[in-house]
Amino acid sequence: MYPAGQPDLSVPSARRRKGGGDAEAKRRRRVASYKSYTVESKVKASIISSFRWIKDKCSALVGRY
Length: 65
Fold this sequence. Notes:
Layout: H1 13-16, H2 23-63
């Protein structure tokens, strides 16, 4: 028996990790990373669109004078 907080060294580290060999857990992590890339690209597009709108409004305002 190991004291509390000590890892069981008889078990390989790959098996000690949660979901280390679980194909479903790997798939969930992979899909989550895809979703994060999608959200990141949507935020980036929104920011670019906002700056473009501000630029167009300022250009229109300056163009009047």
